[in-house]
Design goal:
The protein is an alpha/beta fold. It has five helices and five strands. Helix 2 packs parallel to helix 3.
Length: about 130
């Protein structure tokens, strides 16, 4: 009888941090269609607060934002013992080798440049969450 009960998989929570309202809304909608719980923030400071309060399973992070850049937010995430193990995918238009190297040095999990194919992003998200 015990074998008949299936455990329900927890819905993963993804924090999306981007100052482009249209892109933020699009990503949020597409993730929700794929049954993820989505949190949003429009800058690094707001994103850091949301990450600390909600402890998402994954963070999608832009780099060029007001108040605090994505790299600054990533650095603070990696310095926080409660947040440092959260996978972070940079989703940004920044494709300068120095910035990509800096993100790698700070422990970014993956790096995707805009414009991007949403199917590729979903594949990376799924792979990362399946590892957790």
């Amino acid at each position: 009888m015990l074998g008949l009960f299936k455990t329900k998989k927890k819905t993963a929570t993804i924090l999306v941090v981007d100052d482009d309202a249209d892109l933020l809304s699009t990503i949020q909608t597409r993730l929700e269609w794929n049954k993820f719980k989505v949190l949003t923030a429009t800058n690094g400071s707001e994103g850091l607060d949301a990450a600390a309060f909600q402890k998402p399973d994954l963070i999608l992070l832009d780099n060029n934002m007001p108040e605090m850049s994505g790299l600054e937010m990533l650095e603070q995430i990696r310095e926080n013992p409660k947040l440092k193990n959260i996978p972070v995918i940079m989703v940004t238009a920044v494709c300068e080798p120095k910035k990509i190297d800096a993100a790698g040095f700070l422990g970014v999990t993956d790096y995707i440049t805009k414009p991007f194919d949403f199917a590729d992003l979903m594949q990376k998200i799924t792979q990362l969450l399946d590892k957790k």
